[in-house]
Amino acid sequence: MGLFIAITAGFASGIFFRSVFVFGWQPMLFSLLLATLFGVAAFLKPRLLYSVGAAFCLCVALGMLRANVADSPLPKTFATQLHHKVSYKGVVVSDPDMRDANQRMSVRVHPPAGGAGETTKILVVVPRTTLVAVGDTVSITGVLTVPEPFSDNGGRTFRYDKYLERDGVRFIMNFASIRVLDSAPWYSVPAGLARAKHAFLNGLAATLPEPYASLAGGVVIGGKSGLGNDLQQAFIISGLVQIIVLSGYNVMIVAEWIMAALALTPLSRRWGAAAAAFTIVIFIGIAGISATAVRAALMAFIALFARATGRTYAAGRALLFAVVLMLLWNPLYLVYDPGFGLSVVATAGLIWLAPKIEQMLERLAELRHIKKFSDARRGKSISGGVLQGTTKEIDGARNKADGAFGYVSFWKNAIATTLAAQIAVLPLLLYDTGNLSLVSVPANLLTMPIVPLAMGLSALAGIAGMLFAAIAPLVGILLAYPAYLANAYLIYVAQKAAELPFAAFTLPLFPFWLVLISYAALIFIASSKRFSTTVQLRFAKNAST
Hints:
Elements: H1 2-20, H2 26-44, H3 48-70, H4 76-79, E1 85-92, E2 97-98, E3 102-110, E4 120-127, E5 137-143, E6 150-151, E7 157-158, H5 160-165, E8 169-173, E9 177-182, H6 189-207, H7 212-221, H8 229-237, H9 248-262, H10 269-287, H11 291-309, H12 315-329, H13 332-336, H14 338-377, H15 384-405, H16 408-432, E10 435-437, H17 440-447, H18 451-468, H19 473-499, E11 504-506, H20 512-527, H21 535-543
Parallel strand pairs: 4-8
Antiparallel strand pairs: 1-3, 1-5, 2-3, 3-4, 5-9, 6-7, 10-11
Helix pairs in contact: 1-3, 1-12, 2-3, 6-7, 6-10, 6-18, 7-18, 7-19, 8-19, 9-10, 9-11, 10-11, 11-12, 12-14, 14-15, 14-16, 16-17, 16-20, 17-19, 18-19
């Protein structure tokens, strides 16, 4: 595990330094030199530290090399036409993002002449009135520009150019005009998935009123259009914005449902894993391919492979493997995709930090019931009978604590996972946005147990609308009523939490060195054995001294 962590950390570190700083080949050669020195030391005197150091330095050099390759210049043919009014023919490759006054979509275009074989993606901003779909062949006209970084009110700079480049978009065309030349062919897979998405959203619109229909769509496949600025802001202030965007959590819920359903079928493990993987791919294709969803899908594929082959699934190694694979594919995810970073640290918190928090909660529950025994131990000689009786009393206290709480296992897990995710994302969230929500923990505790239910009921509502909206609309509305109640509850919690005094603050610039210190402290806590000592062992140790 240590070697795997060194490989991941080294590769990510190399990409990070090359993404933030512009330099030549010298740092790469220096990292290779260090890797060679560590390798020679490991050969002469085998030690784990030397092997880990060699792997780390080698992967730092490889990460720098990969980021350097990804830092490509603008296509020359298009760069010569910057700030000119141009017309291109291309194909729509992303589902139109509907805003209040316009719609945005990515179009893959060819230059009209002199650029044979050279293509690029342009973010086109056009009026809402034009109906455009994925796969349509279109003609676009407008002034070609490049996206530029911008600063928010807190002084943070957002690299909008790199944010778009991570999806291959190098240019932007504001206030453009668009004309559909040909509709998407029937055999286009992306067009078919987009049609399925819109059919589902139309089904929700037929069975649920707004904003519940838009929230139901966001809960299932992500998306904030239709919620309105006030409701979106309420979800942001309350720390519940992950509910209305496509995240790894959605994919995780779908994967768990699929694996639970497959356990009830007579399918073999291999066929079941293949069917589950295919379903996850279809779900991501319909919902929209994002870095967070792909990361969760890769981890789900590894879990399905382990299930099919009878091997043990290690979530930590699966996360590291998924991160390395995604950064190898697209190194821009690391620095310029905030969602990817938040998803990775949140998942890491659930894997390594949540068990520690759950142990601490268990200790607190036990200490409430064994505190009365501590005074009895003081001043007494410790004999085998006393210690045996004491440990039995502690076991009884633990059982009493479990019985007193009733739903102790559920709530311990809910509190631990919520705190772990919130603590893990906090340093990076403060660095990226400065948003500090003081109500996010209770709001998430109140909503997270409901989200899987709301997701399932919303999916049922959408399917009911697709089947019955035209022939028996009342049936669809009745079937969607449970989804209405679940989504109404989520909206109620978000609005009431956001209305509380001092619910959220926007902090000034959060230095990156504080981010590093914060995560170093969390890594120490997650890896330290002293945080894993049970109360009973510490009690017995104190009793024997």
